[in-house]
Amino acid sequence: MTHFNATQRQPLYPENMNNDVERTRRIAQSESASPQLLQHLSLSQEPLVREAVAANPNTPIETLFKLAREFPEQFLDNPVFSLLALEYPNLVDAIPKEALIPLLRCDRVPDFLVQQALNHPSASRAYAVFREAVASDPYTPTSKLDRLAIDNKKSVRIAVAKNPNTLASTLKQLATDKESLVRIAVAKHLNTSASTLDQLVTDKELSSVLTAVAKHFKTPIPILERLAADKNTFVREAVAKNRNTLASTLERLAADKEELVRKAVAQNRDRAT
Contacts for 120-124 with beta carbons within 8 Å, 24 or more apart? Predict the structure, then answer.
C-alpha cells in the first residue's frame, strides 16, 4: 500500500520510512495518518517512531495494547484511553498481562485501573503474580506500595515489606501483619524506624522476628539489652554481632553457655579493633 505525505504530496513507501527517522516520527504523530499506516509503523525498529504511534489516537486498539508494555505513559496519555475505559468496563482484562506491570507502575495510572487489578475476582495466580512484581519493583511509586500493603495475598505484602523504597509509615503498618514472613521482612528493612522495631520486640510468635530486630542497626540500646537475655540462642547471637551493642553487654554474652554466642562476641570485638 502506498501512502502520501499531505504536505509534499510525494508517495511514502513504508519499507523506506526507516531511512529518515525524524520524518517518519512526524508521520506517526500526524492526525491524518491512517490506522493501516500506523499499524505498519508500530513495527519500526526506531523507538521514537513506535512511541509516536503509541500516542496517536488513530492507532488501532490491538496495536495500542501491544505497545502499552514498551510505552505505558504514551498509552495512558493517548486520547483513546478514556474511550477504552468506556468500551471495556473491566479494562484490566483486555490489556495484555505483560503490559499491566509497567502501566500500574506509572504515577498517573488512573485509580480505577489500579483498583481493578488489586480487586480482580479471578482465582488465577497470574493477577497475584503481576501485583507481586509491581510490589517488588524499586521504581514503583510509594503511593502504589501503600495500596499493595493491604493486598489479600501474603506474597504481595511480603514484596512490599522487602521493597527498598517502602516508607517507614507503611512498614509500621505491616509490622502488625498476621503473616510472620511479612513481619520478618519489616524487621530486616533498612527504613524500619526504631519505634517499629520496639513494637516488633513484643512479637512472641516467632524467634526469627526477634533475631532480625537484634541484627538491625537502628535497634535502640535498651532493646538490645533486653534481647541479650532472650532464651533463644540465635537471638542472643544476633545481639552479640550487632555493632551497636554495649561493651558491658558483650562482656556478659562472652560468658554465654552457647559457643555460637561467644564466637559472635569475639568476632564483633575483632571488627572493632
Answer: 120/92
- What ranges in 30-124 are assigned the alpha helix state H? 35-41, 47-55, 61-67, 72-77, 80-87, 91-94, 97-105, 111-118
Going by the DSSP 8-state scheme, the letter that residue 12 receives in this structure is E
For residue 215, with 0-12 CB atoms within 10 Å meaning exposed, 13-18 middle and 19 or more buried, which class applies? middle
Which cell is 46 given? 526506531
Q: What number of other Cβ atoms are within 10 A of residue 71's Cβ?
A: 21
Residues paired with 3 in a beta bridge: 12
Give the separation between CA 153 and CA 139, rounded to whole angstroms: 21
Residue 12 CA to residue 8 CA, distance in Å, equals 10
**Structure-block grid coordinates of residue 248:** 558491658
Centre a 10 Å sphere on the Cβ of residue 102 and count the other Cβ atoms it contains. 20
**Per-residue pLDDT reduced to its tens digit, 63-113:** 999 999 999 999 999 999 989 888 888 888 888 888 887 888 888 888 888
